[in-house]
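Mods, move this if it's the wrong board.
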Amino acid sequence: MAEKRTKGRMDAGRFAALADAYGGALHRWPPGEQAAAMLFADTNEGRAILARAGRLDAMLDRHRVEAPSPALHRAIVARAAAEVRQSRRRQFWWLGFGLACVGLAGAAAGLALVTVVNPDMQPDHYVMDANATSFGDAGPDADPYEEDL
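Not the wrong board. Structure tokens:
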């Protein structure tokens, strides 16, 4: 939502908002706003706004963040390693659970297939003798050279 204001004058509200957002150094401001800001910075009100923004910039520049202590670094690394181990264990457990479910599903499908394809035969309907096989009768009267194609 950067508006080009190179032509025309900048008002104090807009100048103060830009100073709050970008600081007291005009070279950090959006290029489309810099020309009008330079004109407004020559006024007393502009100099006051830039001085206030400059004080805030100086205060922020002085702020330093301490490096983490070795104990904190070790604690972070140990916690991360523990999280990785837990995640791997969890993935391994879910993998095993999935494989067990696949095995159970295969067993159930096999049981259903055997039940549908080979229904129970009644003993009075067909009696299997010693010469019978799954492929037919292999009794002594069967022709060993006979082929059914």
